[in-house]
## 1
Amino acid sequence: MIFYPTSKIQGEIDVTADKSIYHRAVILGSLIESTSEIYNIPNGQDCLSTDECMKKLGTKIIREGNKCFVKGNNFYECSTLNAGNSGTTMRLLSGILSSLPFISSITGDESLKKRPMERIIQPLTQLGAKITSSNGKAPLTFYPSKLHATSYRQIKASAQVKSCFLLASLNAEGTSSYIEPIPTRDHLEKLLLLSGAKLNKIGDKIEITGNAKLNSFKITIPADISSASFFIASALLSKNGNVTIKNVGINEHRIGFLNAVKKMNGFIEIQDIRSNEAGEPIGNIIAKTSNLKAIEIEAKDVPSMIDEIPILAVLATQAEGKTKITGAGELRKKESDRIFSMCSELKKMGANIKEFEDGFEIDGKTRLKGAELESHGDHRVAMSLIIASTIADSPCKIKEIDCINISYPNFIETLEKLTK
C-alpha cells in the first residue's frame, strides 16, 4: 500500500485488546472444567491460532461478538497442532503438552519454525518432560511423562518461558519455583491467583504448587499497550498531535515505552487509573506533539518494552541527539530480525543509524523521505513504518502489510480515524 504524510493526528480511539493476556486466559481456561468468560477479546490471527489449537485438543471455545466463553475438558489426542506465526501460542501451549498422557506435536509457519525453542525445552525437561525438536526449533513433539517439582532460574528475561514453566508446574507433583532476577510481565500470575492456584511470590522467586483445583474466572481484557504505542508515537511526531487512547493496560512490567517517552521529553498523561477483575491496572493515555530529545536504553530497560523498540526507533529519528539502544539482541529472534529490519528500512528513508549486534544508535533529528519499504513480513515493523510514513516528505510504498493482521487487523482503519 501507499501511505501519505499527514499534518494532523487527533482524536479519541480504542485500540485492540491485549493479546498477551488473551493467550494466557484461553490456555488457562482450558484447564478448568467450568466456563470462564473473557470480554473485549482481540481478533488478530495469533489469537485465532491459540483458539484453533485449544479446540483441536478438546477445549470448548465460543466467540460471540466481543466476548468469548472457554470451557475445559479432558484433552484428547489429535493431529499436529499448528501455532501459525504465534510464538506465544507455541511456547505457552508447550507447558500444557508436556504433561499430557499421549504423544502430541506442535509446529508453525516457516517464520515460527526458525525461532528458538530451546529456551522452553530446557526448563520443561528439568520438570521431567520428554521432548524432541528440530535442533532446538519447531516442530516439537512431547511424550507422556510424569512431571515433578523443580526450581528453575531464568537465564534470559522472558515472560513466555516463565508462563510455559508455570503452566507445566500446574500438573507437576509438589511445589516448583521460578526465579527471575529481571521481572517480566505477570499477566498469567494474576490470572492464576484469580482462579485459585496455589501461587506465592517471594522477592524474585515465584512458587507454584501442582494439582490444585482451579476455578473459572470472568475478566475484561484491557487495550494493548503495544498497539497503543504506535498511536502515541504518531501524536508525538505530528505537527498537530493530540490523541487519547482509552482503557489501556498499564501493567508495571509493560510500560517501559511510556517511561522512555517521558525521558525523551514526550508529552504523556495517564488519566482515570483503575484495576480490572484480574488486578490489571488500566488508564486513558493522552499524547501530544512534543520536541523529543535523545536517550539511552540499556539491557535492564528492554524486557518492559521489547515489543515497542521498533516504534521507538522511529521516534529516535526525530529526537535531538544520539539515541542508543543496547541489550536488545532478543529482537533478532522475533518474527523478523527487527534490529536489521528497522535499521535497513529507516536508512532508506534517510535516517542516520548505526547497527549493533544487540541494538542500534540513531542520530537525530532527521527529515525522513518517502521510499519503497519492506515490512519483512513482521507486523510490528510494518506498523512502525506506516507511522514513519506519516511524517515523511513524500509518500511511502510499503510491501507485505497483510502481516499486520497477525496482531491488529483494524490498524489502518484506526489510523485513518485520527487523520480525518
## 2
Amino acid sequence: MINLDVEKKKMYDVIGAIHDVHRYLGPGLNESCYQEAMELQLRESSISYQREMSFHPTYKGVPLQSTFRIDFLCNNDVVIECKAVPELNPNHRAQLFNYMRLLNKPCGILVIFLPKFADIQRYFYDNESKNILAVDGHVIKNFRDI
C-alpha cells in the first residue's frame, strides 16, 4: 500500500519550483512559456527532471507504436502536466491519471498556470490497488477493471 506521507515529501520541492515560476511570470502566458521557465527553475533548484519525456504504452506486454509525451518527470517519480487554460475539464485529469498508471509512477501534479494563483492539484497512484488517490487518501479513480 502506498505511503502518502512519503510520496507527499517527494513533491515538496517540485511544488516550490512551480510556485516560483508562477510568482515570477504571473498569469496569462502560454503553456510553452511556463514549461520553459519550469525547466530553468527545476535546474536552478537542483531537482532532477526530464522534459517532454516520450514513452510507448504497452498492450499485454507488447509496446505500441503510439507515443505519449509528458511535460516533466521529476525525481523519477513525479509526473507533471502543465496547463494554461481558464479551467480544467475531465480530460486534463484523465491524461495525468493515465500517464501515472502507464508509467507506474506514484506521484502526479496537474498545474494550471492561467489563474491569478496557480492551481496545483496533487494525486497519487497506488500500483497495488490500481487506485488514483487524492491528497487526503480517498479514491478518485480505480483502474482495477481496465
## 3
Amino acid sequence: MTTRNGTRLIQAAAVASAGFFLLWTVTRDKSVPVVHAQQQDSWTTPAALHSEVRLIEERDSKGPAAFPIAPGDLLFFTNSGSFYGGRNTLNSVVVINAKTRKPIAVSDLDPKYTQKFGSHGIGVSPDGKYVYLPSMLSNHGPEGPTPNTVLVLDGRTLKIHQVIAEGAPPHHVKVVRLASGKQLMLVEPFDATGKGFFLMDPANDNKVVAGMTMADLDGQPYAGFSSPDGKYLYYSVPPLEFTRQRPSRLAKIDMSTWKVVQYLATAKRPLWTVFSMDGKWAWLSNSAEDKIQKIQRATAPGEEDKIVADVPVPPGPYGLRMVNDDKELWVADKGEGKPRPGSSMTVIDTATNMVTHTIQTDCLSNDHLMLSPDGSEIWGTCNASHEVVVVDTKTYTLKARIPMPNGGDSHGGSFVLYPRGADGPGEVVSDQNGLQGSVLEAALKRAAATKGR
C-alpha cells in the first residue's frame, strides 16, 4: 500500500496474507515440525527468510544534496546517537570533511525511527550510494510499536530510502569483501538478542544474500571481521551466562559456504579481530581479561589457527587497528565492562608482542578505531565524551578533537573518497572492518611484494 506522502509500506514476511505460502521445515533434532511463512515479493529472499529480515518501509529519497562534494574530497561518516549522556535526542548521521576536520552535515530523520534511538556502528556502501544507520532502542530490548531498524539513507541527500528490521537491535554495519571481489554489507545484532548476522547486497537493492543464525553458529555472535583475502569471516562468540553456553570462542567461517570451519577457544570476552595483510596473523581483543591475543593463522592444508601470545593492556580493550604496514597494533582502551571509562590508546609492537606506547587522548569510552587511507592517522570515536579524536600514527600525538555538533555519542565511521566529486560515485576506502576498495588492493600488493623478497 502507499500512504499519502508517497511512502510505500511493506508487510512483514512473518505475516500470513495473500502472496504467501507455507514452507514446512523441522528443527535441528527433526522432532517438532515448524511452519515458516514465506513472502513472494521482489525483495524478500530465502536468505532474508532464514535470518527473519524484513523490509518494512521504502521511501522516495531523492532531493537536494545535503552537503557539498569537490573532486578529491575525503569525507568521514559517523553516527551521533542519544546514549552515553549525550544531549542529542535524535539518532543521526554526521558527515565530516577529513581534511578540514569540520562537520559539514547532520541528518534530520523521522523521529518515529530516531527519537531516543542510538547507533553503535555506522556503515557506508562501497560506492557511497547508501549510508546505513543502525537505530536501536535505548534499552537494547525487544521491539516495541516502533521496531529496532537499520535505516538505509541516500548517501547524498541523507534521506531515508529503506527501513529494514530483523527483530533485534542492530549493532554494527560494515563492508565485507569476498574472495571474488564482491562487496557486501554485514549487519550484526546487539549482544544477547537471540539473533545472528546477515549480509545485504548494496548493488541489488540491499537484498539479503546470506546470513547465519544462532543455530548455525552454535552460539550468539558478537562482532565479525573478514580476512583481507576475503576467504574467511572471524566472529567472536562470547559466553551468554543466562544460557550457560560453553566457554568463549572465535568462529572461523568460510565465506564461500557460510560454514564454520574452526572454533578457537579464547579468553573470556572476545570482541574485535584484525589481520596482517600477509595472511599469517590475527589479533583479538578480550575485554574481560584485559588482554590482546595473537593468533597464528593456518597457512597449509590440515593446519588450524592457534593462539600464540597474550599481551596485557589497559582495562576493557575494544577496537583494534593494524598500522604502519602491520608493524604496530593499535588498541582502543575503552574500559568495556569496567566501572570507569577508558581514555587512552595502546600501541603494541607486532613482532615482539610488547606494548610500546600508551597515548592519553581523554577520548572517553573509545570503542572503534579507523585508519585514514594514507595510514597517517587513527580516528577514534568517543562514546562518552561525544567527539572524534585524530591521532598521528608516526608521532603518537593528538592532532585534533572533533566534537559532535549535536552532542551525541559517536561509535564508528567510514572514510569515503570522491575522486570526481559530485559528478561520480564515491569509494569507501576504510571503515571499522579495516582498509577497503583500492586502498586495500594496494596494501595487499605491497604485502605480496614484501613476501616475495
